[in-house]
Design brief:
There is one protein chain. With 394 residues, the protein is an alpha/beta fold. It is 38% helix and 11% strand.
Length: 394
Amino acid sequence: MNIEAIKAPYGASVGLVMQLISDYEWPNYRLGYQFKHVKDVLGNNILNKLSSNNITVGIKYGPLGVDPRAAISNPDEDYFEICARQLLATEPRIANKLFKKCKLIINDYNDGGLFLHTVLDRYAEQLETAREVVFAHSIYNLHLDTKWKTMYIPVYIASGGAYYLREDTYQSNVQIKDMLMAVHKPRNFRLEALSYFEEHDLLDNTDWSLFVIDPTDVTRPGDFHASPSLVNIAFDKKDVYTERSVQFIKRHETTLPKKLDMGTKQVVDFWDHMLLPEEWKNYKWYVDVETYIDEIFVTEKTIKGFVLGLPTMVIGSPGTVQHLKDLGFKLEGNYDVECFEDKMLSIVDHIKNNTGDKDIALHNKQLISDVEFLSDLYANPLIGLAPHTSVGKD
């Protein structure tokens, strides 16, 4: 089995072929700065694991891939990987032929897999008669209503681990409190999490951030601190705010947006949010507020706590903690529940009555630095595509 890439335009999500064999550095958010070190840290190891299962990557067209017209004219038995956003922007005539002629891996890693739903809706007719399709994503519990195979790859865990094996912490000379709770986009559940910490007298002892901004503050699209994506959430009402969230914003409106003190370096662009000051290793707790509350989507937000070697609490979708445990991580506390209020009260209670398990933190730091473990997160789902194996999650 061989996997090739459909050549991606600037702005498409970077796929597995580019991650594994390309030396190209992706200069913007959509192209995946966090994948920067996958090739040099994990690439050979992953490729060897795949080769042992008769799987090759990019041996015909290389890391940058092939024009879709060329793939259509010479599809052979290769799988062709294409970003969902790219497919949706492709000329319909070409897209129709890709479905008919080629074996496709349609990926959406940066947004977890949410754009795959749009592909299913727009190309429902073509999918009925497609040659073969695999939908690849990074949301563990993503449900796609399709007859075709789906492939979950926890790329943010694996690529993030690889990233921090090359990018070290830096001396920042910042003064820290007891806990770190970094929040970017002001989604309702994140605001509620901050409010619960405040209501239970934990927020004053927490270094936290939140970017609620006014539409007039929007600057360039790539600006981490004032991007249109923040305005879309806070002012276009794509997220419904509860009274608890509204009141939290009102109490802090004179200090928002609130940034973390990064000391000798500052977050300017999306790339910079991967920075980890050396002093952060001294926090007593790392409180991870994940991307979604209804999708198990583990990102760099979670693994930063592991990389720093800190006791970590994960505020995310029900099942997120159990999924991390299934992967091999350890987490303390009993808060992986459906009810958000129960979740937050359990987290607050645990932090107030525990100092954090250093042995668990050390285990997670070692696991997120384990090249074999990180490589398997990439390799096993791909091996599962081969007809003679059953590794990976359908």
